[in-house]
Amino acid sequence: MSTQGWLVDRQARLRAFDRRRPWVMDTLVAVPIVLFSIPNLIEDPLSATIATLVLLPPLYWRRRYPFPAFLVTATIDLILGLLDVGVGAGVILLVMLFGVASRGSWRALVWATGITLALLVAEIYLINPVTENRVTTLLLAIGASGTAVASGVAVRTRRAYLIALEDRAARLEVERDQRARLAVAEERARVAREMHDIVGHHVSVIVGLADGGATLATARAEQSAEPLQLIGDTGRQALSELRRVLGVLREGGDADPQLSPQPGIDDLDRLLPSVRAAGLSVTYSTSGELHTLGRGVQLAVYRIVQEALTNTLKHAGPSASATVTLAACDGEVRIQVRDNGRGGPAAPGHGLHGMRERAAMYGGVVTAGPAERGWLVDVVLKEPS
Q: Closest Cα to residue 331, out of 287, 295, 381?
């Protein structure tokens, strides 16, 4: 294994371990902060110990609730500054700011950044005034906060990129396996046709000749009539068995449990959380009898929604949100994916081309372009009768 492959494998294992036991990584973050507070613990044991114990819990729930954890830490930091209790509150605040940048919404990040800057100015100029190099101290604090924000945004972007790669890899693997199994099914059907045409024809000829010979031998009262009748009966039995085997061979591709349908409308409930985790707020609504649609139409709906949301993630910009609406009525399915981003796709690419191909399979029409606010993808499919 190459060095790069080894690093990728170790990163994947570390992420898997972190998902199983997140408290371990949170504890590793908390330990340096406690060590940083040791001088304050020695100087003022009671106040510093209480302050440290109050500051640590938000570290353990910052992943699920990044912005509330930040607000709690910022409030505690302000109170400790007013009480002149020196612990590692500033360091914890930067950790919380990183958490909001990597996991929170863009609006929450703007608020968190503003609150952090206000706290920095208040502490340096009002609460604990810095008498020397005040501007330099403020610039250094702002730089540290900016580094936390930039690091969090980088982690968010990398996470979204990995989610997209994993989804694409899974999709390609499913499609590859589907193509391979379909090729096997087609080959089995071809073999069945060949066997029926060749073997079935010759056995039928043998049966016909045997029956004719048996009839002639019976008319002449020859002893060969019985063997010829036996040959005819055996041939007919062989034809029956052949038809049964060929029927199983033809139906085997459809009966194979591994040839299950690709994603449908129900699978959108598993797709949307991953899109939201990448930073895009998505609202989803349906109307009509969508679950009665055929599997092919459901697959087309799923892929169109998936591609439209992928384009929104790529081009809509920060703070964007999307609305997905599915409606079934009068033999038609309407798919609308609308976002409020400032930008649209730079140029028609494979995604839009793929949408049109899928829609064309069901006599549909794709309309994609700038809307009143943002970008709109509007697709109408006709359900096969």
A: 381
CA-to-CA separations, 358 to 100, 167, 181, 198, in angstroms, rounded:
39, 19, 21, 39
> Measured between alpha carbons, how far is 154 from 160 in angstroms, rounded to an integer?
10
Residue partners of 298: CB distance under 8 A and separation at least 6: 261, 263, 264, 265, 290
CATH code where residue 290 lies: 3.30.565.10
The reply to whether 14 and 108 lie within a common domain is yes
Give the whole-angstrom CA distance, residue 313 versus residue 104: 16
Residue 161 lies in a domain: no
Same-domain status, 8 and 121:
yes
Q: Which of 25, 107, 17 is nearest to 70 (CA)?
A: 107
Residue 242's contacts (CB-CB under 8 Å, 6 or more residues apart) are 195, 196, 199, 200, 203
The per-residue pLDDT for range 321-355, each reduced to its tens digit, is 899 999 998 888 999 999 987 655 444 555 777 78
Report the DSSP beta bridge partners of residue 337.
324, 377
In a domain, 134, yes or no: no
Distances (CA, A) of 62 to 109, 193, 257: 14, 64, 43
Residues 76 and 17 in one domain: yes
Other CB atoms within 10 A of residue 384 CB = 12
Determine, yes or no, domain membership for 228: yes
What distance in Å separates the CA atoms of residue 44 and residue 42, rounded to the nearest whole number?
A: 6
Domain coverage including residue 324: 265-382
**What is the Cα Rg of the chain in Å?**
35
Picking from 211, 233, 255, the residue at the C-terminal end of a domain is 255
**Residue 378 in tokens:** 């509007």
User: What's the structural domain count of the chain?
Assistant: 3
Per the DSSP assignment, residues forming a β-bridge with 365 are 380
Query: Structure pTM?
Result: 0.42
Dump pLDDT digits (tens) for 121-161. Answer: 888 888 778 778 888 888 888 898 899 899 989 988 888 88
